[in-house]
Amino acid sequence: MNIQIIKFLAKLAIIFGVFQVQAFEPKSDFPVSLERVRHCQNFFCTRQYTQPEYHAWEQEGVSNTHQLYTQIARIRQPEREDVRNLVFISAGQQPPGYGSESAVTGQGDNYKKDCGISERSCSRSVDGRSLARQVLDSEHFPADDTFFAVAFDAQFNYLVSSSEKSRIERAYLNWLKSKAYVSNLETIYLAGSSRGGCLAMRLAKALRNDPAFRNIRTIVHSFDGVCKWDQNEMGVTSSFFRNPGNTNYLSYYTDLNAQFPYKDNLYIRQLAGGDEVIELTGVHSFVYTATDINLGWYTQKWVDLSHITIDRDMSPTVRDQTVVPFLQHLDEVL
Known about the structure:
Elements: H1 2-23, E1 30-36, E2 38-40, E3 48-50, H2 55-59, H3 64-69, E4 71-76, E5 85-90, E6 121-126, H4 131-136, E7 146-153, H5 162-177, E8 187-193, H6 195-208, E9 217-223, E10 240-243, E11 246-253, H7 256-259, E12 266-272, E13 286-287, E14 293-294, E15 298-302, H8 307-312, H9 316-319, H10 323-333
Parallel strand pairs: 5-7, 5-8, 8-9, 9-12, 11-13, 12-15
Antiparallel strand pairs: 1-4, 1-6, 2-3, 4-7, 10-11, 14-15
Helix pairs in contact: 5-6
């Protein structure tokens, strides 16, 4: 009898595993309208206009340049009184040129081409293999009660001054808060890669420090998140841990236990590679512990993958180490 039960449970586990893998299979690409926070109204850009939707950037005093180059897609926006879930996903810092793809937001390579600073919005798409596209289809975030936005270019760049970063953070924070009544909110999901991972962490910290938002279920996913240690951003220090799977890679230490004193209903997952982001710059991701760990409120996983691979690669073998484990974590905590 016991053997039969064990066999039955084993079959159920296999079947469940197959269904779960199928659930994480790539979807079709999803069309979006990519909006610019601020755009030029004439050829020489002497007249500029910040869209009313993004008044928070103007209100917080974010520089005109950073407003001009910030590009966001509002994928779903129910009426404020209907919103139960907030979802915001940010790509990493964009290189010079036409923009790079992201396995997190699903933006394509060269998405900035023919979408210059005089364009208020452009038609683009979210890649079906990406985290954003998978989350969009998730049963956890229904279309009728979820505000869902992705930042293709958040302009939350590494070398920006601490004061400007704070202004940008507050702009995103106030904008997101305006999308729902706190009394109705059930879940906040923030995710990002590289600098986007740092932005997600900072937004989560700010929300947890607000008593009105403190007890709302908050999930934070960081793909090799990068904060600037010499600005003590997110408490990141110059101390570091080496990647146990590749000692050429390292990540700077931050005491996330101190950064997040309020841990009820908090679920953070950090994927760390530790590769130097740009050669000879000393720019690396951040971690809390030297080894893989699951503390309930915080989960960390080291991988032997380069920073760009984590950020951009959507091939099946890489995706199984990056995007899929985050989707599994979502299923576990929701």
